[in-house]
Amino acid sequence: MSNLPRREFLTGAGAAGLALAASGRKPNILWITCEDISPHLGCYGDPDAATPNLDKLAAQGVLYSHAYATAPVCSPSRSCLITGVVANSMGSMHLRGLVPKSASVPCFPELLREAGYYTSNNSKEDYNFTNPSTWWDESSGKAHWRKRGKGQPFFSVFNFMGTHQGQIRYSRDEFQRITASLPEHLRHDPARVHVPPYFPDTPGVRLQLAILHTQISRMDAEAGRVLRELEEDGLANETIVFFFSDHGTGLPRGKRFLHQTGMRVPLLVRIPRALRAGSDVKPGSTDSRLVNFADFAPTVLNLAGIPRARSMQGSAFLGPGTASPPRYLFGARDRVDEEIEMSRTVFDGRWQYIRNWMPHRPVLQHGAYSETADVWRDLRRLDGEGKLHGDQAWLMRRTKPVEELYDLSSDSWQLNNLAGDPTHRGRIHAMSKAMFDWQVRIRDTGLLPESDMQQRAGSGSPYDLRDDRFPVSRILKASVDPNPLPHLKDRDPAVRYWAATSLFQSGEQEDLHPLLRDDSPAVQIVAAEALIRHGSSDALNTLAVQLHAPNGTVRLAAAAAAWYLGEQARPLAPAIRFAAENRAGPDYQSEYCQWAAKKTAESLGI
Fold it and tell me: Which domains does the chain have, with CATH numbers?
């Protein structure tokens, strides 16, 4: 970490700070957040970073070296941040798969408002459930702490979107125009950026990395502006400041991936001396404690002196009565746009274990939103030309391993999967057991196919499903059982779904024919895709019916299957065109179904 000067308010309590401590008033809390960046800051040692304002904030506060999102994409992460409940516990783990929020799960700004705080959000929400008016005093592009009542404590969020995946793929001409307006020390030269070993070293890749760091420097300036406003208002001594990103970098193997590049985030916290209340927080220090987004809500409430909600699944890492550091952190990846996926992970600080429930899908699934960016285009082009080798070919593998294990102390880029090494079987057993126990404890609704989860929850929240509607332990056990045959006739459709998926992955199909008539559309679709690969005309009819389904989530699953069937989906041309041209409903799943069907139609020329 760079040795930057500390501000005076951190080395001595001024009159305002002493008065605040003596009066027992609540501290102000400010969140400055950005999107889609890993720890790409100078204070984290990134050699390409130019982030003077955030480096200064780190020198004035605490840098967390092991801070993680709970999901590698925005809305599931934000769902957890606002509630303290992980998204796969609430059913909010699929990108923009909107679900009702359980009445038993409050959003922590509600609790702050009830305690007298002014709460403002500027301005992204994206929580995967509807925001009632009780959460924020104002949530808009004009929201600011300056609108609070006189002397009223505030919790304010400023979210900067300029580093989002969609904002880092502009043209070379636009890059040159933007960088020309920046001071020399904030400009980023594509020829000098450091290319990760899993990317090909191409002009397009270098340009996109330079754009990413340019946008980070611009975001740093915006963060600096908010921090200056805090000082101008005389509030720096009364305000605890957090800075963090919503998940990892918006590039392949970052966003959407459970590896460190998708899950690890920068986290800086500055607590003025007047508010430290005898704590051992030292400006300019680094804290290696394991922290993730489930901890943020209880931490804010703890700092504000407000009891945590019973539903919260994390622990406070700052303030009085801070909990002991956890042994493990957990994370989840589920559907993103039209990319249907399920993976889970556990970290212990040094080791990371990942389990993939859908290893038959490619490492880098095709996503219509992402494919126009230079990095994706170069990867696809070079792969088609047979020019990717070694680590650069990793992203283009057609399948994934069921298990991954990485030693982060010697393999920071996570290029050497140790899961097949028999010397690590004990570690894998312990970490996978911890992960399975966590899934049961938080009632991981990702074990249900999305349409099945919707059907079980009805008009209620998936969070409220109990064992009579969601036997989580039984479904989890079936999903990892190497012998799927006993589960094919189980009364629970999710058990049958995972049994069918397991047979699909193994290449066996003889026992799948009865599932074409299953009561569950999700089971029918996975069985149909497996059987079509072996020439079944009955299975084609089944998939055609589901491409016409009135439910957008069912239709999306069918469209995703058609995409991966490739040429074998050609007999489905009328049904694919129907799904591409007709939206099932106003939900996002229906829109993503159209994306999947359109790209399939285009690839087949139908």
Answer: 8-325 (3.40.720.10), 343-426 (no CATH), 448-604 (1.25.10.10)
